[in-house]
Design brief:
By secondary structure, the chain is mostly helical. Helix content is about 35%, strand content about 10%. It has a three-stranded antiparallel beta sheet with strand order 2-1-3, covered by helices on one side. Strand 1 and strand 2 form a beta hairpin. The longest helix is centred in the last third of the chain and has 15 residues. The structure holds FE2/S2 (inorganic) cluster (FES). FE2/S2 (inorganic) cluster binds next to loops.
Amino acid sequence: NEFGLTGTKKACGTGDCGSCTVLLNDKAIRSCTFLTCMADGKEVTTIEGLESADGTLHPMQRAFMEAGAVQCGHCTPGMVLTGVALLKENPNPTLEEVKLAFSGNLCRCTGYKKINEAVLLAAKKMQE
Ligand code: FES
């Protein structure tokens, strides 16, 4: 709140839902259970840090929009960042690998199908 970065959500507070996901040196972590001092000297990326300086959305953000993978949006920042981290490690995941990577991110609205489709769409577009 102090920095005006409101994308990251505090939800369960126990690291179970994934709404607080941020990237730490390009790896997805649960920020609600991560001690700030452990981030010293490391790069933290929140959803606000994904778009380019000119406002161009990250391919994962565009894919979520194109696939209709957003409803209330509460889980979306964590989902998008989890997807970005997955594609850094595995640029061409299978549907099963996407499902496994997102097993720690809960969504109460979408039923996950469109989120999975968005990640696969982003992977395809990032390889073009
Ligand atoms: Fe509402 Fe995922 S879009 S919780």
